[in-house]
Amino acid sequence: MSQTLTETLTIGSASHRYDVALGWGKLPEGISYGYTHGVCVDADDNVYVHNTSKDAVIVFDKDGSFLSSWGEAFEGGAHGFYLHTDNDGQQYLYLTDINRGLMVKTTLSGEVLLEVGAPNRPDLYDAERRYIPTDVCVAPNGDIYVSDGYGQYYIHQFDAAGQYIRSFGGRGSEPGQVIEPHGISINLRGAEPEIYVADRRNHRIQVFDLEGQHKRFVEHNLDLPCSFYFFGDEVYIPDLDSRLTILDKEDRLITHLGEDQQAYKQEGWPNLPKAYYRPDKFSSPHGVCVDSSGDVYLVEWISDGRLTKLIRQK
């Protein structure tokens, strides 16, 4: 299979070359995607796709065989998606629902363990000022951070039991302020853990410490960063304006994958005619993850979903 894929389609740069796994991840009859928003891999390299259909979490094995689906409660609202190994050594999924205004922690099979809604902050939220959580991440100490990326543009910190600790951010472009904090993750590549926020409409990444204090910006080689996946010393960033960006440990550009600078300029984007899409080009990247072999899985913001696997050349 690898030889055929290599002959068919290869993308990337000298240090990061990938075979496009054409047709990977077939859905069984009766199951279809809504908007594909997030993707995660577990310790066994099973792949979990978060989408807005009634089967909001769809699970494949590494070879692309369908394993299971669940998550009807997330239909229409599925958005943020994060897999974390908690301090008990078990893996859990953390999901956000933009319709219900919830962060939900589940087992890998979908058993709900925790639900956290908007913090009790009447100074921030009321009938007109909605809470619309777009992403979630978990710090090494178990604290949970939820980004209100479509609401009032704050990041909220909770402890592992869901008790509110603090909020930071707020609308603006000054240090510490954000506009559409769409994605959030924990950077463990340095001496101290940091919070990376995809400050999307400011066209940058903003970095905070775990108490929510601004540290620095990452502003180069980004357009509309959606979210993050840290793999070794690298960070993978789906850019909604039609490319996947990979940065090194110092957040310097390694490469853009699948870049199509015409896609997001097309009338009707992101839901373009099917004839437009090409397997080696991306249109609206929204979520990404990397498995233990360095293979990349990317999902796009398209009404009936799109999932691409890229097999890293050794």
From TrEMBL:
NHL repeats: 165-211
Higher taxonomy: Bacteria, Bacillati, Bacillota, Bacilli, Bacillales
InterPro entries registered for this protein in UniProt: 6-blade_b-propeller_TolB-like (IPR011042), NHL_repeat (IPR001258)
Organism encoding this protein: Alicyclobacillus fodiniaquatilis
Pfam families reported in the protein's UniProt record: DUF5128
Name of the protein described by the UniProt record: 6-bladed beta-propeller
Record's signal peptide: none
Keyword Signal in record: yes
Keywords: Glycoprotein, Repeat, Signal
